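User: chorismate mutase. Structure?
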Amino acid sequence: MAKDPPMNNPATDTQLAAFRRSIDNIDAALIHILAERFRITQAVGEYKAQTELPPADPDREAKQISRLRKLAVEADLDPEFSEKFIRFVIEEVIRHHHIARSK
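Assistant: Predicted structure:
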């Protein structure tokens, strides 16, 4: 018979606190990585505006989505989630590229 988990207080549960510290560290790293990615894509958007290239590149986007779905499978991450995430990022990048073009 399975043993019921202990009824610990989340405020004093050291294992839960350790998990949460790890999650907080990962969240901070994700934010910094996304910030760096957007700094680079902002430069790409400015370059595209200066050189009159279109803000979106559907072929590149399709290749990126395919590549990231494969990476997700290899990392044991749901490829549907990874595609939704990268599509959201791509849409935001394109929005920024449109803003750069209108300046």
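Residues 66-103 form one domain. The chain has a mean pLDDT of 89.
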